[in-house]
Amino acid sequence: MERKKTELTTLRRGLDILSLFSEGTPALDTSAVAERMEMSKSTAYKYVQTLETAGFLVRAEDGRSFKLGPSVLELTSRIPKASALVDVATPLLKGLVDQTNETVVLTTIMGTKAVCLAREESGHSLKLTYEIGATYPLHAGASALVLLAAMETTARARLLRNLRLDRYTDRTIVDRKALAERIEQITEDGYAVSTGELSEGVFAVAAPVSVRSGDVLASLAISGPLHRFDLDKQKRYVKLVVSAARDITKLAG
Fold this sequence. Notes:
Elements: H1 2-19, H2 30-37, H3 41-53, E1 57-59, E2 66-68, H4 70-100, E3 103-110, E4 113-120, E5 135-136, H5 142-150, H6 153-161, H7 176-189, E6 192-195, E7 202-210, E8 216-225, H8 231-252
Antiparallel strand pairs: 1-2, 3-4, 3-8, 4-5, 6-7, 7-8
């Protein structure tokens, strides 16, 4: 829980830095960012470097200051699509909860993270909860791995080269060769199943949601405490999530 709070605080600071830029302030150097954010220059430098690596900031013509990068434009272009996708998907998310009584989540990629777009929660007292807008690693858990597996090959290779493979549990894949093999298998299967890769004792099954062009918009996942998912349920939920993801794909298309 403490790690998640730290990640959310870090995300908020990164967003606050991006909000410093405007039509009247198109470029800022690291010193100016540090002063306005009331943080040390070394801390500001780390944030700026991370945002530059992800494409949210680029070097200005003077080579010393920074301005907003192409990833910001990409995000703004996705907002109507994401909003429309959530509208289309919500009834199907609720339908999956009715059939499984487990939490159902719609996730997409933004930068180097998976982001929760929408969720419908289980009626169980013991359940998984997700915050809309919360970010998660791309190399751990069914929702994120499905997104990686369904990406265009060149774009995925470029992303993976710079992706940090942090360990969250004993089951987290932190070896790049093993991750590549896992992604290949998910691509062949058309869905992903994970057990305790991001959080101990959690089971999830996910399938990709895409438009007719084949571009992946999101992943759809059913997740919950592992002890509630026997083998029969796991097999049934794979079929349910794949079918629902296809339905969303058709409606989104």
